[in-house]
Amino acid sequence: MITCWVFIATSLDGFIARQDGDISWLTNPAYTIASEDFGFAEFYSTVDTLVMGRKTYETALGFAEWPYAAKRVVVLSHKTITIPPHLTTNVEHMTGSPGEVAKKLEASGARHVYVDGGQTIQGFLRAGLIGEMTITTIPILLGGGIPLFGPLERNIYLKIITSKTFSNGFVQTRYQVSV
Ligand SMILES: NC(=O)c1ccc[n+]([C@@H]2O[C@H](COP(=O)([O-])OP(=O)(O)OC[C@H]3O[C@@H](n4cnc5c(N)ncnc54)[C@H](OP(=O)(O)O)[C@@H]3O)[C@@H](O)[C@H]2O)c1
Question: Where is 55: in which H helix or E strand?
């Protein structure tokens, strides 16, 4: 069976980016703590596959360096996506419901999957496919933007595994998702 995990940062009012996709508030140097990656490297080392929405993929393509080297990246989109030549061995395109995607991933060998992008996370949550979420809350109110969470047909209950604070005001909570 595959396990799907979320590791994401959000503003206190629940946004992962401004409406235009801006995430500069997240990478503000004022938040930097020397030698602190907020647990990302440890988490990242445990995943074999990333599944991300087309919009998150496009953001990542705009970074100076491809941030997901040496991992299989599956991009979800209902349309054709552009994969630069240097990424064709790592990046692939998939479509389908979260359940269908999970089945295809499992059949192709994925085991520990990092799900990223607001709409994509919401789809996997609604389908009951997310096992754990690590959410880092940034002490900022944006007033609007792209939401981490969205409408649900039923409550989703969460159990806190750990919660910690950082000297820059980040609060990181790891939740187990009960289905
Ligand atoms: N704060 C953070 O830590 C963090 C982390 C990740 C991303 N972000 C930011 O969040 C923003 C993107 O989030 P988002 O919620 O707008 O979008 P997203 O989840 O990254 O992408 C949404 C798109 O993914 C495709 N998609 C999702 N599920 C699908 C499925 N089951 N089958 C086929 N296609 C599917 C669709 O693409 P099509 O429209 O092409 O069909 C949909 O429009 C970016 O600005 C990114 O930088 C922030």
Answer: helix 54-61
What span, in angstroms and rounded, lies between the C-alpha atoms of 119 and 35? 31
Separation of alpha carbons 35 and 41, rounded Å? 11
Ligand 1 is surrounded, with C-beta below 6 A, by 8-9, 16-17, 21, 23, 26, 52-56, 59, 76-79, 95-98, 101, 116-120, 123, 146
Question: How many angstroms separate the CA atoms of 85 and 167, rounded?
Answer: 41
Cα 54 to middle of ligand 1, angstroms: 5
For the chain, the domains span 3-178
**Alpha-carbon distances of 145 from 11, 13, 90, 110, 120, rounded to whole Å:** 10, 9, 30, 32, 16
Q: What is the pTM of this model?
A: 0.98
Give, using CA atoms, the residue closest to atom 39 of ligand 1: 77
Tens-place pLDDT, residues 93-109:
999 999 999 999 999 99
Reported as a single tens digit per residue, the pLDDT across 115-146 is 999 999 999 999 999 999 999 999 999 999 99
At the topology level, CATH places domain 3-178 in Dihydrofolate Reductase, subunit A (3.40.430)
